[in-house]
């Protein structure tokens, strides 16, 4: 008889509506008696778990597209996202984690082939202001940071963060004393500067001077090892992207930038040396070096050649360089013949090569050949100065 009176499962729309009502209660009733508040909060936590189950599935079933679409449409029909972000500090830790995962999933949900999360955020950019400022709250930084990274998936949001001068704040957030928060801010900054290539290229072209002045002084010359390592790696990713070719040419024409990279090559860390080398080779490869760049390279020619000769990476790269320019050129040609590749691009074994079938080389050998060719190339450029 008990099963006859079992309650009917709620629809995704009903779950979202009740969640919204509970969030309104939490946000607007700070002085309600404790027992009633605990009851409402328990219902809210239950609803968040149920929404998460609908979007992600559970141990017994995979998520279904129709319930997910219904939940997404109702979630963004009114201000449920706004209420969830505002009320997040009032939730317990597990509920915050659930809310963060819900927001992340909803950014990818399509309704009638549209990302309605993007449409909603375009009309509510002030929510992005709250998420960015969340890095200043130790308790909320990781939750708001995760939400922000998922929102940056939308190009309109990334453009807003860049154009609203929020990006300037990241130079300070990345250096926060709390390691976890600083690392999270660095991950968000990397996502912001690499995901939407056309938007980033446009931003860097218009804001080159102040952006790289901040980048060099606060990140590349930071006293923090982790910050320097991450910043050097990201700089290489930015400059080596084809979308940023004009920015790259401008960067490698600066004597001050070269001086910073040469100092990074002197780091005791092999990781930083390797990432700095990937940027330094752009200076060496520039066929139109300004006079002050050439002068600086010539002044430090012997030191750079000694460094390139003895350079070893933490991955076990230990290649003894030939001493003459002719030998270097032959070695480069040999590497290119065996392993045609773009400059730090992905190696592609030529199928027209007569020895393709019998001389296929391993991925490790390909990587080593690319690295050796780059090192040889830079050394030849130095010998020609």
Please report the number of helical segments: 21
CATH fold topology of the domain at 196-299: Serine Threonine Protein Phosphatase 5, Tetratricopeptide repeat
Overall shape: it is elongated
Helicity level: 55-70%
- Kindly state the number of beta strands: 0
Describe the protein in words.
This is MO25-like protein At5g47540 isoform X1. Pfam families: Mo25. Belongs to the Mo25 family. There is one protein chain. The protein is an all-alpha fold and about 375 residues long. Among the domains are: about 195-300, Serine Threonine Protein Phosphatase 5, Tetratricopeptide repeat, CATH 1.25.40; about 310-385, no CATH class. It has helices spanning about 10-30, 35-55, 65-75, 80-85, 95-105, 115-120, 125-135, 140-150, 155-165, 165-175, 180-195, 195-205, 210-220, 225-240, 245-250, 255-265, 270-285, 290-300, 300-310, 325-340, 365-385. Helix 7 (about 125-135) crosses helix 8 (about 140-150), helix 16 (about 255-265) packs antiparallel against helix 17 and helix 19 (about 300-310) packs antiparallel against helix 21 (about 365-385). The protein is elongated.
């Amino acid at each position: 008889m008990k099963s006859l009176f079992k309650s009917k499962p709620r629809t995704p729309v009903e779950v979202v509506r009740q969640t919204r009502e509970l969030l309104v209660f939490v946000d607007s009733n700070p002085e309600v008696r404790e027992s009633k508040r605990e009851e409402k909060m328990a219902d809210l936590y239950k609803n968040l778990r149920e929404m998460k189950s609908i979007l992600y599935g559970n141990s017994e079933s995979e998520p279904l597209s129709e319930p997910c679409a219904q939940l997404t449409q109702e979630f963004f029909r009114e201000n449920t996202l706004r209420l969830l972000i505002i009320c997040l500090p009032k939730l317990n830790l597990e509920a915050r984690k659930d809310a963060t995962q819900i927001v992340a999933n909803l950014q990818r949900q399509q309704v009638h082939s549209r990302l309605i999360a993007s449409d909603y955020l375009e009309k509510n950019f002030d929510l992005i202001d709250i998420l960015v400022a969340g890095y200043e709250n130790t308790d909320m930084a990781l939750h708001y940071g995760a939400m922000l990274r998922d929102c940056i998936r939308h190009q309109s949001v990334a453009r807003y963060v860049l154009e609203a001068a929020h990006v300037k704040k990241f130079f300070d957030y990345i250096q926060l004393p709390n390691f976890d928060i600083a690392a999270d801010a660095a991950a968000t900054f990397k996502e912001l500067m690499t995901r939407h290539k056309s938007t980033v290229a446009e931003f860097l072209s218009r804001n080159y001077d102040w952006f790289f002045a901040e980048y060099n002084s606060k990140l590349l010359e930071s006293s923090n090892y982790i910050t320097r390592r991450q910043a050097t790696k990201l700089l290489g990713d930015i400059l080596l992207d084809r979308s940023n070719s004009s920015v790259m040419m401008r960067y490698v024409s600066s004597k001050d930038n070269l001086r910073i990279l040469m100092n990074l090559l002197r780091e005791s860390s092999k990781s930083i040396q390797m990432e700095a080398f990937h940027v330094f080779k752009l200076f060496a490869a520039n066929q139109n070096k300004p006079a002050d760049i050439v002068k600086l390279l010539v002044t430090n020619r012997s030191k750079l050649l000694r460094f390139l000769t003895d350079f070893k990476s933490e991955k076990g790269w230990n290649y003894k360089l030939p001493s003459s320019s002719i030998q270097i050129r032959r070695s480069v040609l040999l590497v290119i013949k065996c392993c045609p590749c773009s400059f730090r691009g992905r190696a592609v074994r030529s199928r027209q090569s007569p020895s393709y079938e019998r001389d296929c080389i391993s991925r490790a050998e390909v990587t080593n050949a690319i690295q050796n060719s780059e090192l040889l190339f830079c050394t030849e450029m130095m010998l020609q100065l």
